[in-house]
Specification:
This protein is α/β, with parallel strands linked by helices and 489 residues long. 25% of the residues lie in helices and 23% in strands.
Length: 489
C-alpha cells in the first residue's frame, strides 16, 4: 500500500462517514458532530468524534448530557459509550455511518432495558485512573485471602508477588514490600469510578477507610463476581494532607492454574489425568511434549537415548544451556521450569525402545503412545505391539527431506488404507545429502517450521484420540514445502 493510497483511503472513509452524518441531520460543532439518535420511545442527543486512527478505530460517542444516560458497564470512565467490543472489528463496519447510527440506537435500547443479555466482562479497572506504579501485581487463588491482610514482595521483571502478611510496625525506609487487604465487592450492577463511589459499597464493619488512613495498607485488592465469573481489581490507595483517599488502578494478574488453563482449549480439563508416552525426544518429539503440556496434559513419559548437541538446537525446543544433557532430561527440565506450578509428572527414560516386552509395558501403562523417533524399526515394533494388545499408537515423522509430514494411527481405527499417497514438489527430488561430523547418516534438511507443523498436527490427532473424537481413522499426510499444495487423508 503506497502512501498515496493510504491517504486516499483514510480521507475517503472520513468523508463518506461525515456525509452520512449530514444526511442523518448531524451538524458540526467545535467538539464534534452533534445530533439526535432515536431509540424506542425516546431520543438522545450525542456528540460523535473521529479518533486519530479512524477508520481503523471506531468513532467516539458521548451523550451531550452525560448524567441523563444511566451509568453502566457499557460506558467509559469519561462518559463515552462502549459501542464496539474488541472481538467485533471485522471489516471496519463502523465506517458506514447508517450502520453505526443504528448500532448507537440499539445501545440505547439495551440500556433502557437494563442490559438483559449482558456478558460478564471483567474489566472494572478501566473505570479508575491508572497508578504511577507500573509493576504487575500477581496473585494466586485470591478467594482464599478474602477479608485478610496480604503482603506484596518485589520479584523479577517488575512484578510483585502476593502472600499473607501484615505491615511491619517500624519498617525501614528501604523496605520494598507493600501491604494490602483483600475485600469482596458485593454490588456491581454499575461500576464504581472513584474511591467515594467504591467506599459506599464496601462492608462497613471492615473499616477499609480507616485501614488506609492509618497506613496499615496501601494496596486494596477488590474481588467481585459477574455471573459465575470472578473479577479482581487492584488499587493503589493513598491519603493526602486533608485525609482524603485516592484510589488508582494497578496492573494485576492471576498466576493460578485455572486462569492459565482458560487458554489451553476446551478439552484441557479432560486431559489432566491422561498419561502419554513420547518415544523420541528430538525435534518433533520435544515440541509435541511442549504442546501437550500447554494443552492440559500433566503426565508424560519421555523416551530417547540421545544427547543434545549444538546442531540439534536449530530445530529443538530447548536452548544452548541444555547442550550435553540427554534429550529427555533437557525436555523434562525445560517443561518443569516453564510450568513450575502445574504439578507435572515427567519421567525421563534414557534408552532405546528395543524389545516387545518394553513396547507392551509402555502401551499397557499409558493412555496413548506417540512415536516421534523417525526410526522405521521402532515404528514397526510399536505397530505390532499395539496390534497384539488391541490398542493404537500414533506415529509422526517428516519425510521427503522435510517437504511432507506424515501422521499414522497404528493400526488404523477402522479398516481403511493407512498409506495415503501424497505428491511431493519436484524441487525436493534433487536435494543434496547433508552430513555432519560424527554422524554416519545424512542430516535432514527439514526446516524448523516443518518440525513445528508436524508436531502441532500430531498433537491435534493425539487430543482427538484421547477425547474420543479422532480426526481421521488412519492419520494424515501434508505437504509443508513453501511451494507445494496441501493434501490430507
Amino acid at each position: 500500500m503506497s502512501n498515496d493510497y493510504w491517504d486516499e483511503f483514510v480521507a475517503y472513509s472520513q468523508l463518506h462517514f461525515e456525509e452520512g452524518l449530514i444526511r442523518a441531520g448531524f451538524t458540526t460543532t467545535p467538539v464534534g458532530w452533534s445530533g439526535s439518535v432515536g431509540h424506542g420511545q425516546g431520543v438522545t442527543r450525542v456528540v460523535i468524534t473521529l479518533p486519530a486512527r479512524f477508520p481503523f478505530r471506531p468513532p467516539r460517542v458521548v451523550p451531550e448530557d452525560r448524567e441523563a444516560v444511566a451509568w453502566s458497564w457499557h460506558r467509559e470512565r469519561d462518559g463515552a459509550l462502549c459501542l464496539v467490543a474488541e472481538d467485533d472489528h471485522d471489516d471496519l463496519w463502523w465506517t458506514d455511518s447508517a450502520a453505526f447510527l443504528k448500532h448507537i440506537s440499539a445501545w440505547f435500547e439495551e440500556a433502557d432495558a437494563g442490559w438483559p443479555s449482558d456478558r460478564p466482562d471483567l474489566d472494572l479497572e478501566r473505570y479508575f485512573e491508572p497508578s504511577r506504579d507500573h509493576r504487575i501485581y500477581l496473585y494466586d487463588e485470591i478467594e482464599g485471602f478474602k477479608n485478610a491482610f496480604v503482603r506484596f514482595k518485589p520479584a523479577k521483571n517488575d512484578t510483585m508477588i502476593m502472600m499473607r502478611g501484615t505491615r511491619v510496625p517500624k519498617a525501614h525506609k528501604s523496605h520494598k514490600d507493600r501491604y494490602g487487604y483483600v475485600v469482596e465487592l458485593a454490588d456491581v450492577a454499575t461500576p464504581p469510578r472513584n474511591w467515594d463511589d467504591l467506599e459506599t459499597r464496601l462492608p462497613e464493619e471492615l473499616s477499609i477507610g480507616r485501614k488506609i488512613r492509618d497506613r496499615s495498607i496501601s494496596i486494596l485488592m477488590v474481588t467481585y463476581h459477574r455471573g459465575d465469573s470472578l473479577g479482581v481489581l487492584a488499587l493503589d490507595v493513598s491519603v493526602d494532607a486533608e485525609r482524603s483517599i485516592t484510589a488508582r488502578v494497578l496492573t494485576s494478574a492471576s498466576t493460578s492454574a485455572d486462569t492459565r488453563n482458560l487458554r489451553a482449549g476446551l478439552l484441557a480439563p479432560s486431559l489432566g489425568d491422561r498419561k502419554i508416552a513420547i518415544v523420541g525426544a528430538g525435534a518433533i518429539g520435544s515440541f509435541v511434549a511442549d504442546a501437550l503440556v500447554r494443552s492440559g496434559v500433566r503426565n508424560l513419559t519421555l523416551i530417547d537415548p540421545d544427547t543434545i548437541l549444538p546442531g540439534n538446537l536449530v530445530r529443538h525446543l530447548v536452548g544452548p544451556s541444555c547442550v550435553g544433557l540427554t534429550k529427555v532430561e533437557a525436555v523434562r527440565r525445560h517443561l518443569l521450569e516453564r510450568n513450575e506450578d502445574w504439578n507435572l509428572t515427567l519421567d525421563a527414560v534414557v534408552q532405546r525402545l528395543d524389545t516387545g516386552a518394553d513396547a507392551y509395558d509402555l502401551i499397557d501403562s499409558h493412555d496413548l503412545v506417540i512415536n516421534a523417533s523417525a526410526d522405521f524399526s521402532t515404528t514397526a515394533l510399536l505397530r505390532v505391539a499395539a496390534e497384539s494388545r488391541g490398542e493404537h499408537v500414533l506415529s509422526v515423522a517428516l519425510v521427503d527431506h522435510g517437504a511432507t509430514f506424515r501422521i499414522d494411527v497404528l493400526p488404523p481405527l477402522s479398516d481403511v488404507d493407512a498409506t495415503p499417497v501424497l505428491d511431493t514438489p519436484d524441487l525436493q527430488e534433487d536435494v543434496a545429502e547433508l552430513f555432519e561430523a560424527g554422524c554416519g547418516s545424512p542430516i535432514s534438511p527439514a526446516p524448523p517450521h516443518a518440525v513445528m507443523e508436524a508436531a502441532s498436527a500430531a498433537v491435534r490427532h493425539a487430543i482427538g484420540i484421547l477425547s474420543g473424537r479422532p480426526l481421521d481413522d488412519a492419520g494424515e499426510t501434508r505437504n509443508v514445502a513453501p511451494q507445494g499444495k496441501a493434501h490430507e487423508s
